[in-house]
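Subject: Sanity check before I submit

Could someone independently write out the structure tokens for this chain? I want to compare against mine line by line before I put it in a report. The sequence has 144 residues.
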Amino acid sequence: MDTRKPFLPDAQYHFSISHCGDYAAAIVSKESRVGIDVEIPVEKIEKIIYKFLSAKELDRFNLVPGAGKVTGVDNFNEVTTLWSAKEAVFKWYGNGGVDFRKQIQLFNRKEETKTIDCFFSKSESELVAHYKQFDGLVLAWVVS
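---
Independent answer below. Compare away.
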């Protein structure tokens, strides 16, 4: 199966890359599987929120649907952070065929540590997505 994920022969290193606009991000580990995502928060994230967040997650993160918009969000950084965390899990997995809404569940966003607890049902994995919001960007990564 061609997942288009980059790899090195003999899996000497695990790595992940991402790009958005003029920005790129990469993460490399000799021991751990990794995934990374970089995003520029934009308003259109509201239009696809129902494709990647479950009803439980909308409730968990106080995102209330209404009239085609999502209320409860001060800015698009918040929703983009949730998307980016799921994208980092997807890249960590690296084998494609993932339903973001059903198979990647987000819990317990911890502002003090800039982490979000995740459960990836496809591999029965409990993961932690780390994130950073800065200079109009959202960066999320998973290491395990």
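---
OP: Matches mine. For the report I'm noting this point. The chain has one domain: 9-143.
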